[in-house]
Amino acid sequence: MKVKEVADLVGISVRTLHHYDEIGLLIPEETTESGYRIYSDRDLETLQQILFFKELGFPLKKIKEIIDSPTFDRQEALEMHRNMLWEKRNRLDQMLATVDKTILDMKGEIKMSNKEKFEGFDFSHNPYEQEARERWGDKAVDESNAEINSMSQDEKKAFEDEFNAIYRDLAVIRHEAPESDAAQAGIEKWYHFLNRMGSYSLDAFKGLGQMYVDDERFTKNIDRFGDGLAVFMRDAMAVYADRHQK
């Protein structure tokens, strides 16, 4: 595809594509003798990756460092994008709810507490930052903070209900041994639930469980269902991953 065709397809300017070429971020596979840039399917895949990172706040310099890294894995990156987008979506949903309640408060229809006025604001680090650091290095995420919005309201509600039900069920058995049949049956439901959203390898599943404990924000949110749930899930997820490795 020529540069104008790519620009029209993606919805960005020709000037942007020229800039990406000039800084070595996206150099088309072929340039004709007359100077026309020709983009391959592989170039389009790279462009998609660049735009995902850009959407999540990564500066171009850092994006280049990531995708140029010999350890860069496109599937792992997409899994990271999905997780970050879910986090971003949940935060936006909370802020939208706060805006709606604030409007009602201004009209005198409800009375908000001071705490409610700031629900959805979160200036802590991104909960997936540690995983990004481990995969791509500190430099790649120092400045960083799938389109899933196609889900309907009914689908979203069903998703949230199932999500909460799994966590409530795990909270009930959190005092069981992580390797027990009950614990492993419960954590298997969580594994399959995650894999309906995308593709979680067993290693990624185990790593996610570790983040539940390493990241205070994860721990706080999970332990709302029951004290110690985050630690229980980490241990049960590790047992599950180790048992099912081929």
From TrEMBL:
This is MerR family transcriptional regulator. Transmembrane segments: none annotated. Pfam families: MerR_1 (PF13411), TipAS (PF07739). Keywords: Activator, DNA-binding, Transcription, Transcription regulation. CDD domains: HTH_TipAL-Mta. It comes from the Bacteria. The keyword Lipid biosynthesis does not apply. InterPro entries: DNA-bd_dom_put_sf (IPR009061), MerR-type_HTH_dom (IPR000551), MerR_fam (IPR047057), TipA-like_antibiotic-bd (IPR036244), TipAS_dom (IPR012925). Residues 1-69 form the HTH merR-type domain.
